[in-house]
Give the backbone structure.
Amino acid sequence: MVESLILPVDVSPKESLYYIGGIALEILKKNETPMGFIDLFSELNKKLKVSINMFILVLDWLFLIDAATAEDDGVVRLCL
């Protein structure tokens, strides 16, 4: 099941964690400063409409691959 979220075979690639995570990383990189959780979600939704559930899965994916970290105050930081 997880494989189908990361790189789905039967749906649009734009619905994958891999693609959405890339967009989120692009936003964090362009911003050049850490962003709040809600700010990142808002900016991501300007580019690509995602549910809060998918956004949380994307953040989990980015944390697992050490591409981003989260602080206790809700700030998301780019690790790359």
